[in-house]
Amino acid sequence: MRKKNVNEELMNESWIYIFLLTTVLILMESLKTYTFEYQGITLSFTLFLLPFVYLISNYIMKKYGVKKCVLGISISSLSLVVFYAVMRYVVAGRVDFTNIAGEFCGYILSQLINLIIVNFLLNNTKSPTILIYLNYLFAIVLFYLFDTLISLQMIILDDFWITYFVTLGLQAIICLPIALIDKHVKRGLPKEK
Angle at CA 31, nearest 5°, toward 115 and 104? Predict the structure, then answer.
């Protein structure tokens, strides 16, 4: 029996994080309809999960590389569409992708831009915490921007902008400790002995 080398084992572990990314994204979709009140504004519980989606994908990119991260984003986004289609068919008896189109495109585009920025920061800077934090905020803003632009015909809310900025504000607070956690993730696989 031959021993696997350290890099093969660690590359196989990347699937655990890809599965975690997919699970958190599907949980986010499941929680979309569950809301809470904050100073008279109705907010979705998904606002607590979105920063963690970017943390997991950044972790995958740092530990396993860009290819595994793109694979993780692809698998999680396709799993999101399949989950949505199955649940929509079970609940409504038909599948209508117009409700998921904005979220799907927002997720893909914001993740890819986040990936490009994180890769740039890793290769060209010492990745100061403030830049990592700003990248998380930028990715979240892009997610909502693309989601809103694509789903614009469905937005008929009087308090849309208040909800939008309160959601971003709360996620900015959540991103502070996440940026600190991200800063301490070491890049790359350990060297084989």
Answer: 40
